[in-house]
Design brief:
With about 500 residues, the protein is an alpha/beta fold. Helices cover about 45% and strands about 20% of the residues. The strands form five sheets. Strands 4-12-11-10-9-5-8 form a seven-stranded mixed beta sheet, sandwiched between helices. It has a four-stranded antiparallel beta sheet with strand order 13-14-17-16. The chain has a two-stranded parallel ribbon with strand order 1-15. Helix 11 (about 245-255) links the parallel strand 9 (about 225-230) and strand 10 (about 260-265). It binds pyridoxal-5'-phosphate.
Length: about 500
C-alpha cells in the first residue's frame, strides 16, 4: 500500500469511530449536564461540552457515551471555576514572602476592608462640612501620631513612594546617592533605574564599601534636587565599611537647602527589640534623625495591606500631593480602610503582637512550633508511606521582604528525606521534587522548601492545624510524576 492509501484507510476508520461520538444535545440531556447548567449557566456548559467533544474528535478517541462526556465537561468546568489566586500554606519559613502575598492582615483590618467594599464610604467627603475631603485624611493623623512627622501621604506601594518623591524634587535635576546604597529589591526594583525613570540625573558618590561626608559634599551642587539615603534592607556589607549616619547627612542637606529622603523599605512603627526581635530602624527614629522625608511599605513589618507611605515636612508633602503623578499612584477605599484599622492597632502596643499576624508569627516561640511539628510529623509520615523518612527538625525562619536581612528566628519544622531502603536510593532528588509537587497540588497547596536533600516545612506560619490535616486527605504521592521543583519555592 502506498502512503495515500494508508492515509485514506486511517481516515475512513477514524470517520466510523467518530460517527459514534454523541451529539452535543444528547450530552446536554444527561442529569450531570442539567445540574451543571444550574451551577455554571447553560452557555458555559454548552461551550464545555463542545470543547470536550472537539478534543475527542481531534484525538480520534470516540470512546464513551453521553454521560462520559458530560462528566468530562463538568470536570473541566469545575477546574476552570477554581480561583487562580487562592490560599496556600506558607511553610517556606519566610514570614513576609513577596511571592505569597507578604503580610496577613489583622481581623480588624479585614472587617474594615469588607465593610468598605459593600457600601458607599466617606472616601473623599467631609461629613461635617458636606464638601469634598481628602482620602489621605483617614490615615494622616494616625501616621503623624505614630511617627512624629509633620505630615504624611499614602500611595500604591513603597516603590511608588520613592518614584513620587524623586519625580517631585529631582526631575530634570540631580539625585545624589551613595554607591553603597544602589540596591535592587526583588521584582526588578533597582534604585538607579527608578532614579532615571523619575526623570532625575543620578549622581553616585563614594564607593561600594565606604562613603564619607566629603563624598556627598563633592557631589552636591547647584543642580541637586534631592539627597537619597537608602536602608540597605536586604543585604549587609561587613568589614572595612563606612557610611554617613542619617543625622550627619541631614545636617549636610540642611546646609545646602536640599531635601533628604530616607527610604527605610520595611520600616517599623514599634521597636522590635521590645518583642524580643532584633532592632530594625523605626520610622520615628528616621524622622527624629532629621530626614525631610521618610518612605516605607505597608505590607512588610508594618503588617498591613500593600501601600507606600511618605512622612515628613509639611511643605514637601504638599508638593508631593500637587504632583499629577500622585493621582496615578493613589490607593483605593478598600486598602485605605484596612490601613486605618491596622494603624489604629498600634495605639495599644501591649496587644499588638497578639492582634497583628505578622508580629504574632515572628514572635512565636520555637518550643511551641516544635510541639506542633511533633504532633504533625506522624500524620504526614502515614500519608506519604515508607519510601520517605519523616522527622522533626530545628530550622531558622526569615522575616523576608528585605527586612532584617541577617536575622533569623529559631524555628522548627517537618523534614522529609528519602528513606534508607535499597529500592529507594536511586533518583532521590526526583522523588523529593515530585513529592514536593504532590504537596503543591493539594486543594490548599502546601509550599515548603528543598534544602540539603530534604523537603522542609517550617511550621512557624501554620495557624490552622486542623485544616492542614484535613487537606492531607487527598495527598497522593504516586500521582505526581512530573517534577518541576525549584529550590527557592519547593
Ligand atoms: C521593599 C523595599 C522597597 C519597595 O517597597 P514595595 O512596597 O515593595 O514597593 C523599596 N525600598 C526598600 C529599601 C525596600 O526594602
Amino acid at each position: 500500500m502506498d502512503k495515500t492509501a494508508v492515509a485514506n484507510k486511517a481516515a475512513k476508520a477514524g470517520a466510523t469511530t467518530l460517527r459514534k461520538l454523541p451529539a452535543v444535545d444528547e450530552v446536554l440531556r444527561t442529569p450531570a449536564a442539567a445540574r451543571a447548567c444550574d451551577t455554571f449557566g447553560r452557555q458555559a456548559v454548552v461551550d464545555a461540552v463542545r470543547r470536550v467533544l472537539a478534543a475527542a474528535r481531534k484525538a480520534g478517541d470516540a470512546a464513551g457515551d453521553a454521560a462520559h462526556f458530560a462528566a468530562a465537561a463538568c470536570e473541566r468546568l469545575n477546574r476552570e471555576a477554581r480561583p487562580s489566586l487562592r490560599p496556600v500554606f506558607n511553610l517556606t519559613g519566610t514570614v513576609l514572602h513577596t511571592n505569597l502575598g507578604r503580610a496577613l492582615l489583622a481581623e480588624q483590618a479585614v472587617a474594615a476592608a469588607v465593610a468598605a467594599m459593600r457600601t458607599a464610604v466617606t472616601l473623599e467627603f467631609d461629613v461635617d462640612g458636606g464638601h469634598r475631603g481628602e482620602r489621605d485624611d483617614h490615615v494622616r493623623g494616625l501616621l503623624r501620631e505614630l511617627t512624629g512627622a509633620e505630615d504624611a501621604t499614602v500611595v500604591n506601594n513603597n516603590a511608588a513612594a520613592v518614584l513620587l518623591v524623586l519625580n517631585t524634587f529631582a526631575r530634570d535635576r540631580e539625585a545624589v546617592i551613595s554607591r553603597g546604597e544602589m540596591i535592587e529589591i526583588g521584582g526588578s526594583f533597582r534604585m538607579p533605574e527608578i532614579i532615571t525613570r523619575a526623570g532625575a540625573k543620578l549622581v553616585e558618590v563614594g564607593t561600594t564599601n565606604r562613603t564619607h561626608a566629603k563624598d556627598y559634599l563633592a557631589g552636591i551642587g547647584e543642580a541637586t534636587g534631592l539627597i537619597l539615603k537608602v536602608h540597605t534592607s536586604n543585604y549587609r556589607i561587613e568589614g572595612f565599611t563606612t557610611e554617613v549616619a542619617a543625622r550627619e547627612l541631614a545636617g549636610i542637606a540642611r546646609a545646602h537647602r536640599v531635601p533628604l529622603m530616607n527610604d527605610l523599605g520595611s520600616g517599623t512603627l514599634v521597636d522590635l527589640a521590645r518583642l524580643g526581635l532584633p532592632h530594625e530602624p523605626t520610622v520615628a527614629e528616621a524622622v527624629a534623625e532629621g530626614a525631610d522625608l521618610v518612605t516605607f511599605s505597608g505590607d512588610k513589618l508594618l503588617g498591613g495591606p500593600q501601600a507606600g507611605f511618605v512622612v515628613g515636612r509639611k511643605d514637601l508633602i504638599a508638593r508631593l500631593n500637587r504632583n499629577p503623578m500622585k493621582r496615578a499612584l493613589r490607593v483605593d477605599k478598600i486598602r485605605l480602610a484596612a490601613l486605618e484599622a491596622t494603624l489604629k492597632l498600634y495605639r495599644d502596643p501591649d496587644r499588638l503582637a497578639a492582634r497583628l499576624p505578622t508580629l504574632r508569627l515572628l514572635t512565636r516561640p520555637q518550643g511551641e512550633i516544635e510541639a506542633q511539628a511533633r504532633r504533625l510529623a506522624p500524620v504526614v509520615a502515614e500519608k506519604i508511606g515508607v519510601s520517605f523518612a519523616v522527622g522533626v527538625t530545628a530550622c531558622a525562619s526569615q522575616v523576608g521582604s528585605g527586612a532584617l536581612p541577617v536575622a533569623a528566628a529559631p524555628s522548627a519544622g517537618i523534614e522529609i528525606r528519602r528513606a534508607r531502603i535499597p529500592s529507594a536510593r536511586r533518583g532521590d532528588g526526583r522523588a523529593l521534587a515530585s513529592l514536593s509537587l504532590a504537596f503543591r497540588r493539594l486543594p490548599i497547596p502546601v509550599v515548603g522548601r528543598i534544602a540539603d536533600g530534604a523537603l522542609v516545612f517550617d511550621l512557624r506560619c501554620l495557624d490552622d492545624e486542623d485544616a492542614f490535616v484535613a487537606n492531607l486527605a487527598s495527598l497522593d504521592p504516586s500521582r505526581s510524576e512530573r517534577s518541576e521543583g525549584s529550590d527557592a519555592l519547593a
